[in-house]
Amino acid sequence: MCRTFRLMLLVLTLMSFPNLTSLAGGLGSEKLLWEANQLFREYKDTEALEKYELLLSSNPELPEALTKASIVCGRIGNRFADDTHKSLYFQKAFGFAQKAIEVDSLSAEPNYVMALSLSNLCQTVAIKDRMVQLNQIKTYLDKALAQDARHAGAWHLKGRWAYKVANLSFAERSANKLLTQLPLPVSSNDQAINALLKAIKLDPSNLLYYYDLARVQREADLKSECVSTLQKALDQKLVTTEDLELSRKCKMLLQEVLKVRA
């Protein structure tokens, strides 16, 4: 009798609140997204990707899951030494970025993620595709920064893009002229440095920004500035295993620069 009463009560509850089941599912999705984002912040990218993909299996247009899934795929790909595995994850990152742009082409984050995925693809594609993508990266970065001028990641990527464009090889310049007929992107080391400095100002705890800035400063023969940047990097708190590796690289680079100066 008691069991029958509980069953009737459940039926009446569902009839009174028809959205209760979907609401429970929504709460489950929120918990899963929170767990995925926690793994994302800890650079546990394989586990994070699994959760983002699980989220997207039930909600394929969830913007945050799409953009974060693209970023973690890029991070995983960059840990491989061989182009085969790199390309596999970079293509996957690009796929998530494309979907994110389809869902929302106006916001900063989807445009930044698209630029980031194209930047990663430049590592593994043929020279013609690389030159086309360099033009596309600039377009997406400009859109991202137009929507959010305080997007540290976009400023960092713009700095890396500017450095790459300012130091294109003769082969790359020739390929752009002969194979793409696109206008050659124009930039300078100074523009790269300014963009990276903006990224650091917006996110002063990110070791990668300091490391990339120091590398550009070294190539620009700004030795004193390079040393100062690396010293600031080594003062930052180390939180993740990624930070430990970047700190090690900063120490090695500082030793190289000081040795050159001596």
CATH topology of the largest domain: Serine Threonine Protein Phosphatase 5, Tetratricopeptide repeat
Distance between the termini: 90 Å
Domain count? 3
Tally the helices: 13
CATH architecture of the largest domain: Alpha Horseshoe
Percent of residues in helices comes to over 70%
Calculate Rg over CA atoms: 23 Å
Mean pLDDT over the full residue set: 90
Top-tier CATH class of the largest domain = Mainly Alpha
Please describe the biggest sheet, giving its number of strands, its sense, and whether it closes into a barrel: none
Low-confidence stretches: 17-25
* Large-scale geometry: globular
How many E strands? 0
Strand content: under 5%
Strand pairing plus helix content: what structural class? mainly alpha
SSE string, helices as H and strands as E: HHHHHHHHHHHHH
Question: Could you characterize what this model shows?
Answer:
- This protein has helices spanning 2-16, 20-41, 45-58, 63-78, 83-103, 108-121, 127-147, 152-166, 170-180, 189-202, 207-219, 223-234, 241-261.
- By secondary structure, it is mostly helical.
- It folds into 3 domains: 36-110, Serine Threonine Protein Phosphatase 5, Tetratricopeptide repeat; 126-203, Serine Threonine Protein Phosphatase 5, Tetratricopeptide repeat (Alpha Horseshoe), CATH 1.25.40; 204-262, no CATH class.
- 35% of the residues are buried.
- The model is unreliable at 17-25 (pLDDT under 50).
- GO terms for molecular function: microtubule binding.
- It comes from Rufibacter tibetensis.
